[in-house]
Amino acid sequence: MFSGFMVNTWIAATMVAVIAGVVGFFVVLRGSAFAAHAIPHGSFGGAAGAVLIGANTILGLGIFAVGGALGIGWLSRRGRHDVATALALVLMLGLGALFLSFSVEYAAAVYSLLFGEVLGVPGDDLLPMAGLGVACILAVAVLYRPLLLTSITPEVAEARGVRPGRIETGFLLVVALATTMTVPVVGVLLMFSLMIGPAATARSFTHSPLRAIALSVAIALAIVWFGIAVAYLTNYPVGFFVGTLGAVSYACARVWMAWRSRAVGASPGLGNSRPDLTAPLSPAAPPGR
Fold first, then answer.
1. From residue 279, how far is each of 66, 216, 282 by CA, in Å?
2. Is the pLDDT of residue 287 over 70?
3. Which of 9, 191, 196, 210 maximizes the CB count within 10 A of its CB?
4. Domain count, the chain
């Protein structure tokens, strides 16, 4: 389990979990789950085009992911965000269907892009993945405070000169980078689950942004590591365990929240025991720009 080709699996899965946990926190906080769903699914069309012409699938993923992010960001400034996201997704999927119709030998490549190949990551892919992962972390660090401000109090952000449209486009580009990095490992379908499940679970346990990000990463790591170990021992798909564990973790968090709400209601002295996510971002204590 920890020798040979599996070493690459553990390294790649760890990088994917860290990026999914960090980026996923802001996806959940901003209510951008639809965009986080659309970009990786739309980027599948780029990968299909790359398979058709014999190019690197990561390159095709990246081109379509970035193009989809820019398209959603541009259309959202002139209309509803959900409509813009849906139109971008439909266009990219349509192109993907066209590319697939021209190909006669794509079954294995398509399957791997949909469900991932975390148990067969080649060593040559680790360095590009690490580079994209570092780029994602740096981008989130640069956009951290504006992202929080525009996510929680967009009116205050505009009053302070922060342009929500630009921040939204920048964040969508971060999602595109994360997509390009993670889809070849966990697949289009599971990347979305890994990005949403751990982050939503973490926010159920703490309202502190940094703690929530750290907990989101920890949960994502636990899910991926456990999924790989069980998949290796049982020969069942990794995706089944990743998707199921993500949903179960969130369900458990919701049960815990319901229990804690009743406990807090029964004990008035505990009413202010949880930190407030909006506290650092109130007008009395604005973040630096």
1. 34, 20, 6
2. no
3. 191
4. 1
